[in-house]
Amino acid sequence: MSAESExxxxxxxxxxxxxxxxxxxxxxxxxxxxxxxxxxxxGGACVHAxxxxxxxxxxxxxxxxxxxxxxxxxxxxxxSPDLEVASLMARLEQVVKAHERTITEQLRRxxxxxxxxRARFVSPHEVDILAVDGTKRxxxxxxxxxxxxxxxxxxxxxxxxxxxxxxxxxxxxxxxLPESLDPVVDPGDALExxxxxxxx
Length: 200
Ligand SMILES: Cc1cc2nc3c(=O)[nH]c(=O)nc-3n(C[C@H](O)[C@H](O)[C@H](O)COP(=O)(O)OP(=O)(O)OC[C@H]3O[C@@H](n4cnc5c(N)ncnc54)[C@H](O)[C@@H]3O)c2cc1C
Prior knowledge:
Layout: E1 6-13, H1 17-28, E2 33-37, H2 44-48, H3 51-70, H4 81-109, E3 113-116, E4 118-123, E5 126-130, E6 136-146, H5 187-197
Parallel strand pairs: 1-2, 1-6, 2-3
Antiparallel strand pairs: 4-5, 5-6
Helix pairs in contact: 3-4, 3-5
The structure holds flavin-adenine dinucleotide.
């Protein structure tokens, strides 16, 4: 352990579901735990790009469609396509923020420390944490849990430009609905979007 290192029992890289569970379990067992997250908010892909966004969009879209269908004979419900996307995204932001708050509070309640920065191993028990302002802190940990998740695959033969060819992250930033979608790599994500948007 280098002289300037801080020390914890468990260091967790990543605040997605895997990192959260590891951190909370260890904290409940009385360990000093530090979670490192490179994004400014906790939750990982699950909250920001995966499960929660896709299911929130799907549920909101289903509710809208069902409301339109059920009220069809009583009064007319009409929304412009732009407004439909805007309402879906506004609802998504509310749900994501609620999840972030719950996770942050759960970590705080269990006395799990959290640093914002990118973790990099310098030895089997030491990690450097690079903050966004360029400062670096070294931490020594008896145990290190790597819960760094995954990122969308970018096959060499698929020129993902995030405008016409999107991956599962950039599809969440669409501000309009396309007329049609063709799944290139993962039909699962595209299918979820078909359900949400009703595009062909
Ligand atoms: C579109 C989509 C839909 C999905 N739907 C479902 C579903 O319905 N049900 C389901 O069970 N799963 C679903 N998933 C999968 C689910 O999101 C993942 O399985 C889950 O998020 C994995 O959790 P994790 O903690 O391993 O990693 P992640 O959630 O990816 O978290 C990893 C975290 O580590 C951080 N990190 C990485 N490297 C570093 C570093 N060096 N230093 C500091 N921090 C770092 C990242 O910023 C990230 O926040 C879906 C995924 C996608 C993309």
